[in-house]
TrEMBL record, chains A, B:
Belongs to the ROK (NagC/XylR) family. SUPFAM superfamilies: Actin-like ATPase domain, Winged helix' DNA-binding domain. Pfam families: MarR_2, ROK. InterPro entries: ATPase_NBD (IPR043129), HTH_MarR-typ (IPR000835), ROK (IPR000600), WH-like_DNA-bd_sf (IPR036388), WH_DNA-bd_sf (IPR036390). This is ROK family transcriptional regulator. Residues 24-67 form the HTH marR-type domain. The lineage of its organism: Bacteria, Bacillati, Actinomycetota, Actinomycetes, Micrococcales.
Amino acid sequence: MREQGAASTAPGRVGDVRRRNLALVLANIGPNTRVTRADIAAATGLTKASVSSLVAELLETGLVEELGVTRDGERGRPGVGLALDARRGALGAEINVDYLAVGVVDLHGTLRSHEVAEAVNHGRRPEDVLAELSALAHRCVDAATASGLTLLGGGLAVPGLVDPARGIVLTAPNLRWHDTDVSAVLETLAPEVPFGVVLSNEANSAALAELWYGHGAFFRNYLFISGEVGVGGGLVIGSELFSGPRGYAGEVGHVVVEPGGRRCSCGGRGCLETVAGQEAILAAAGITDGGSTTAARMASLQAALEAGDAQAVTAVERAGHYLGIAVVSAARLVDLSAVVLGGHFAVLRQWIGPALTSSLDGFAPGLVPEGGVAFSELETTAALRGAAGAALRRALAAPYELLG
Amino acid sequence: MREQGAASTAPGRVGDVRRRNLALVLANIGPNTRVTRADIAAATGLTKASVSSLVAELLETGLVEELGVTRDGERGRPGVGLALDARRGALGAEINVDYLAVGVVDLHGTLRSHEVAEAVNHGRRPEDVLAELSALAHRCVDAATASGLTLLGGGLAVPGLVDPARGIVLTAPNLRWHDTDVSAVLETLAPEVPFGVVLSNEANSAALAELWYGHGAFFRNYLFISGEVGVGGGLVIGSELFSGPRGYAGEVGHVVVEPGGRRCSCGGRGCLETVAGQEAILAAAGITDGGSTTAARMASLQAALEAGDAQAVTAVERAGHYLGIAVVSAARLVDLSAVVLGGHFAVLRQWIGPALTSSLDGFAPGLVPEGGVAFSELETTAALRGAAGAALRRALAAPYELLG
DNA sequence: ACGAATTAGTATGTGTTCTGAACTATATGG
DNA sequence: CCATATAGTTCAGAACACATACTAATTCGT
């Protein structure tokens, strides 16, 4: 039971100050903001001299570029604009039950290349899945590098519990993977990138994508709930992913919402997943065509909802009701006041939204204010963007790693 | 809606290194450990020269004292033992519904003086409560200073939501306090102490007391549940209190555990407090003597339990069952594997323990392992110790504040 | 009993990095 | 064209950890 959070025993050295200030200055340089050295000095409290020296080093890393003299029409010598260099990016990849997705995101947040392939990965041999993923990734990376992009790192998101340090998928029930070592593939996806390729949980990555490329502009603290075949989640607190002592935090799919309810695949009872997972909703809606894939049946569900099918509507509203219970519990425990719904919950937003809102009102009036419920618009790129974004953040947090 | 967690915009300065290392060295000095400078150098990675210089400054602060030459029988020059100086301490105080408690805790963790006064504070005028508390506190502080102790700071814990920055009790339903300004009293409790007197939530403080003076030696990550008239909670993650973006985290009393259940005073429905709070348990046990206080009726409950009264036993077991649901949800969301129960839950441990364990087994087998359920032994000193301990930790984390 | 070995702690010079003040560079406005 | 304002650089000085060399105090072996 590896647990993080030990007292930092690392001594502070004089050089740490520079590392911290490099990251601090970099955090003040945005994609298109054209900030000047003087702006940064004013914003950070560092002297102009220090900022100049720090910026010089950041330019060396390639993460930052000078945009030439700004002409803002004011008096005095104009400054030189600085911005993150869009020629640096990271690879993001996702293995999910229904599809594979790969993309390259640059430091401006632009998705530079992107591929999604439908697939039926439930029970498929990991090596076959990983081989297909590799092929997709190489096409994406080649397209991006051809346009002048250099990769800094990457990330792979999977729908399950992972050990990022060892590159192992501990368990992904909906893929039927257990203790699957993917560390070799991680290296081949983006070879020899300075910040490596890191394994992550799909819902956690999607939560981060929402932070950086979605509703994060408005929400700095929220619970992200990812509706896929299973129900995953990610907690964002203070604009950072809260992953818990062992990295398993946010598992909202197995919060108890119906104490008298059904057994769950996790061995427990009354879990959210047993009433709001795709299979549960489909069963309640009476869409039980065993022959077709879950994805195809979800399409049937949507058709039924649009046709006004009462059983389908009730099934989805029931899911919304139970989502509300889980959200209330999470909000109480972790002090949150916003939720972002992704995956099939985002697809079903017009039916599930009102049910969720009324559930929240019933179980904890005022806890989640007006506007505190949002739906993701990132669709199948969410996890991939989050995984790539995490790699970019690793670079932005430790630019000194790129210096001699 | 004040939220913490903004990007730290403070620049790193050369002096920060020293501040960090002072705290680091201090963190390696325990109450009775008799560590030497050489031990600290080995543990921290700092050089002996740096440790010597840092220790010299720590001695100046008065937080640390030299114990004279250690004689450990090994070869070589013996080192000089260092320990936290027990002549420094902090005041802790608690206002609860049934009682007032005050104490002084020194840097060795010893409760140097201590007073508990039964009181019926529900609906009592805040100024009367605070006046009685002040009198108790002055007696305690006088006793402690008479024995040569110097106060570094203090803390006051109340059963409700607080704004520590402004010294205001936002809402304490079981006291009937709302927006009560106690900042003036905070200053008079322990005047002119270097680290101030800070307001906190009772359950959060008790959770910290458990960490520092209770089960914290075994658990670094747990949910503390405080059973008082209401049900409060505190999350400890990585040996630190997790207080959430606005400071309201850990409110396990209002997690939804019985979706079809009763209305709660918070306006919601099915909250844990409606089935495991003292009034709820007493009602279910049929102990409804309206004339006597809650505390007196809790004593009757205990007598009934010891007599084997079936209704009483069932009532408590029912509370344990619902506690299990809340614990499972918390453990899933925040990735915890231990719980510590305090307040009336600790008093009722022999009846509530088995029910809780079996509830956990039913709703999430394996989530909370054998030994992951513990009961507090700090009784009415828990919150007071936590509040005092927090003040001591503030001093230990920022020893440079005591230097010129 | 006495020197060798071992460990604790101190003194001193060096390198890193921030700060502050002086300086250069480049614009606007009358 | 010069006063003024703002951007950015240069350089001396201070703080601090480090490496190395030193002194101090003890045990072990003979």
